[in-house]
Request: fold
Amino acid sequence: MKLAIFDFDGTLFPKDTLPFLLIQWRKLKYSKLRLAEVYSRTLGLYIIYKVGVCSTLSKEKFRIIAVKEFNRIFKGMNEEEINQFFLDSSKYINELLKDTVVSEIKKAKNNGFHTVILSGSFDILLKYIAENLDIDTIIGTEMYFNNDSMLD
Reply:
């Protein structure tokens, strides 16, 4: 099997996903209070990381904490509502995908490669991107639900 693996953040998608999703949250008119809560929690963390005040906060640790804090935005939402947010956001993302990478994906598909998007981004979001690009497999950060609510 021939395999073609593509990164999402910064490669296929030219932006960082979490800040972009926060902007989409506002544009799609979801809760301003939840948005403010997430911004306040992640902004302080971002400043600490960038300034280097906390020497134990590695890039990987920062990303893990940032995703956990970002997930608070979905508090009280069910799986269907979260899926709808990612579907709506994916429409804006699809418009911004890098043409050169999209072209490489199409070329790989035409040459019989099994195509994969590999990313730390949410698998629900990647699923919608993959459908648009006819990607065979996605590997991303899984969201877990219990009784239709997201688990921390």
